[in-house]
Write a structure and sequence with these properties.
- The protein is of the alpha/beta class and about 180 residues long.
- The protein contains 6 helices and 8 strands; from the N terminus they run E-H-E-H-H-E-H-E-H-E-E-E-E-H.
- Helix 1 links the parallel strand 1 and strand 2.
Length: about 180
């Protein structure tokens, strides 16, 4: 069965990015794809900042990433880039940490001024880590994401359509990867 690790790089406990990441995990599960969420903010800060990739918690997160066939990397945009928290985690991965994987970048932000952060800040790092295919990402405005009771989320219809289109491209990339692996 295809597996996906959805990484939320938001440092906030009350994160719209984490809500969207959870929403994507649920959408994948509805399609029969095993997916789970990793909130980088729940990893030990001392180990992240000290670059201790041998820490048990960091090692477990890296192992979960290594066994996933696809990865969603979701981040809020701060100061025109992805979060430092996410960068700290990505820096602990081996140079080929995303080798052979399909990757879906997702970003949230307060204004359209941050729209290009996926392509100019995040995509180069994902490619440098060896991602086989970084699919077209999705940027969502904070105002399009509404927190509902019980941790649920509602995304404005036009933003939800963009998110679903990006997810479709990601699932297609996963399917191609699975078909190629079976053909070998």
């Amino acid at each position: 069965m295809t597996s996906v690790l959805a990484i939320s790089g938001s440092p906030s406990v009350d994160s719209r990015t984490a809500l969207v990441t959870g929403h994507l995990v649920n959408l994948l599960a509805a399609r029969g794809i095993a997916a789970r969420q990793l909130a980088v903010r729940e990893l030990p800060a001392t180990e992240l900042l000290a670059g201790r990739s041998d820490s048990p918690a960091i090692r477990a997160a890296a192992d979960a990433l290594a066994t996933a066939e696809g990865v969603i990397v979701a981040t809020p945009v701060y100061k025109a880039s992805y979060t430092g928290l996410l960068k700290s985690f990505l820096d602990l991965l081996p140079q080929s940490g995303l080798a052979g994987k399909a990757v879906l970048p997702v970003a949230t932000g307060g204004s359209l001024a941050h729209l290009l952060a996926i392509d100019y800040a995040l995509r180069p790092v994902l490619s440098a880590l060896g991602a086989r295919h970084v699919v077209a990402g999705c940027f969502l405005l904070d105002k399009d994401i509404e927190r509902l009771a019980g941790g649920a989320v509602r995304i404005r219809p036009e933003a939800e359509l963009r998110l679903l289109d990006a997810l479709d491209g990601f699932v297609d990339a996963l399917t191609i990867r699975t078909d190629l692996t079976r053909a070998r």
